[in-house]
Structure formats: structure tokens, C-alpha cells
Amino acid sequence: MAETPKPSTLRPSTVAVHAGRPPHEPDQPLNVPITLTSTYVAGGDKEYGRYTNDAWVAFEDTLGALEGGKALAFSSGQAATATLLDLVDQDSVVVAGQAYLGTIGQLADRESRGRVKTRLVDVSDTAAVLEAIDEDTALLWLESPTNPGMQVADLPTLIAAAHEVGARVVVDNTFATPILQRPLELGADVVLHSVTKYLAGHSDVVMGALVVSDPALWDVLKGRRDLYGAIPGPFEAWLALRGLRTLPLRIERASASAAELARRLEAHPAVSEVRYPGMGAMLAVVLPTAEQAELLTHSTLLWVHATSLGGVESTFERRRRWSGESPDVPEGLVRVSVGIEDVDDLWSDLLQALDKL
């Protein structure tokens, strides 16, 4: 039987389908089975259900191959974030000011207890970020594009600057996914994903993941996951792996639709601003007032008013409806997650809602 090509020699769309599979041998299943157990017979490498599960390993192997590193699955993106931040003790963290609300919330909580010192920056202002990075910086936390402002960072420059002062760099790659951006190749130390979003892709899983290139750092993070029990269930991991199989196709379709919708939205008189970074399926629309933004999100038939994103269905929401959202985010900003529906159907639905404004 011919040897299966190594993931490093394959293109991402092939890796997404073939990585993390059982061996090609007679009577082997094509998919890793869901193993529902809390306990393993002693004497082997597994021992206990808090340490490993075959479904996690298959998911981790596939995501690691896509990102070019070694992955760890977590019970949620927030659990992965907390595990990373636990490595920082009374040091400075430089973070995107318009980063995900949960990330900012965790940092604020730690700062209130004297655990970290947080410096919020505009990641699109490279000079300002470089000025914020100094000898006290332990961690540079980047999003590109940011959630929800859609700001884009100069990742290679900022990563290099952080490394010059001995800081680690984390890049939240939830929006771009490894199909569009591989931060480890740009020098990042850790890639974070809310697997709930594009990786799983069907709005039916809550899960997170970290990917690293340093085996020693992986061991540290794995040890903390084992200790704290921030683990996904086997069924969630299996669903997330199934979602990964179609990630390249979903990203290709949704990205093409997002680019076209951004073009059409820019021409509509009710829209003050369209923020689209030129890649991916996420964009932001700014309307003149919060009231108009709320009306838009409650006037459609296909578009779903929801706080999550990255599913096969198109969703949107006014982000400042959350009290903890950054005041730098305009009141009328609507974060838009484009799904895989027909782009003309999506536009017709948006158009009739915009025309009401």
C-alpha cells in the first residue's frame, strides 16, 4: 500500500480532509470513533479521561497540521485564554483595545486582582504598538482582524518587536483561520482559536484550541489543561473535527460573498462606513445611530440576530449592545458574519432592511 503523504507536503484543503484519520487498513473506520469513557485500563499511556481522548487527538492533529504546529483542544475559547494568561504573573500584557470582549474581560479581572498590568493599543497603529512594547512586556496579544472593529495588524513587525524584549506573542486567529493566515509562520508563539466559530462552523459546538510550535510550551499548556480540567467532551471534539473537514470550502464561499456584500454595502446611502479587511467572511457596517443599527438587525428574514459568528448561516449584531464592549467601537457598528447562503438572497434581505432606514 502506498504511503500516505505527510501533511507538510499537502495543500490545506487536502490536509483538512485527510489529517487525523485512522490508518488505511482493512476494516478500519474512515472516521475516528467517539469514545465515551472517563477511565482507561491502567498500564498504558491514556490512564484517565481528563488527560486524553481519541477524538481530541484527531482534532488536534488536524488543526496542528493546518496551522503548522502542535494543537491542544479546550472546553472553550475562554478556557484556552485563561490557560494562557495563567502563565503571566504581575507582568505587562499589551493587547488590542478592540479585542474580543471575553479576552478584555479576563485581563480586566486579573488586573483588578494585581495579577497583570494591561496596556490597550490600536493594533492598526504600528508605531503606537511598538511604543507600548517595553522590557516589562511579558505578552503581546494580537487579533488581526480585530473583533469587532476589523482592524489589521502588521504581524511580522509587531511579533519581531515583542521577541526583542523577550515577550511571547499570541495571535487570535479565529476570524482569519489557518486557511487565510498562519501566524506561527510569521513568528508567533501561540495561535488561539474559538473553535466554536469557523473551525467547527455549524453553530453547534462550544470549544477552544491553542496551537504552538515549541514542544516545551505545549507540555506546559498540556499540564495546565490536565490540572484544571478545561477539556472538551468527546462528542464536541468529534463534531469540531467534522466541521474542520469542510473549512476550506466554507471559507472560500463565505469570503467571496463577504467581498461582494462589502462592495454593495459601500454604495448604499444608509451606510456610513464599511470595514472589510480584504479577506475572510467577517466585516463591519457602521450606521449613523444605534437605533438604526438595532432596526437593521431586527428587520431581516435570512440574517440572524445573534452574538456568535462563523457558522454556515449569516449572523449579525450591534456590538455596543454589550455594556462591556470598548467605547472605541461606534454605537452604530454592526458586526457581520457572512455564511454560505446565496449571495443575492443575502443581499436582497439586507437591502429591504436597509431601505427601511
From TrEMBL:
Keywords: Pyridoxal phosphate. One of its GO terms (biological process) is transsulfuration. One of its GO terms (cellular component) is cytoplasm. Its EC number is 4.4.1.2. Residues 1-12 have a biased composition (Polar residues). The keyword Cytoplasm does not apply. Gene3D superfamilies: Aspartate Aminotransferase, domain 1 (3.90.1150.10), Type I PLP-dependent aspartate aminotransferase-like (Major domain) (3.40.640.10). Residues 1-30 are annotated as: Disordered. It is an enzyme of class 4 (lyase). Pfam families: Cys_Met_Meta_PP. It comes from the Bacteria. The keyword Cell cycle does not apply. Its cofactor is pyridoxal 5'-phosphate. GO terms for molecular function: cystathionine gamma-lyase activity; cystathionine gamma-synthase activity; homocysteine desulfhydrase activity; methionine gamma-lyase activity; pyridoxal phosphate binding. It catalyses: L-homocysteine + H2O = 2-oxobutanoate + hydrogen sulfide + NH4(+) + H(+); L-methionine + H2O = methanethiol + 2-oxobutanoate + NH4(+). The modification N6-(pyridoxal phosphate)lysine is found at residue 197. Belongs to the trans-sulfuration enzymes family. This is homocysteine desulfhydrase.
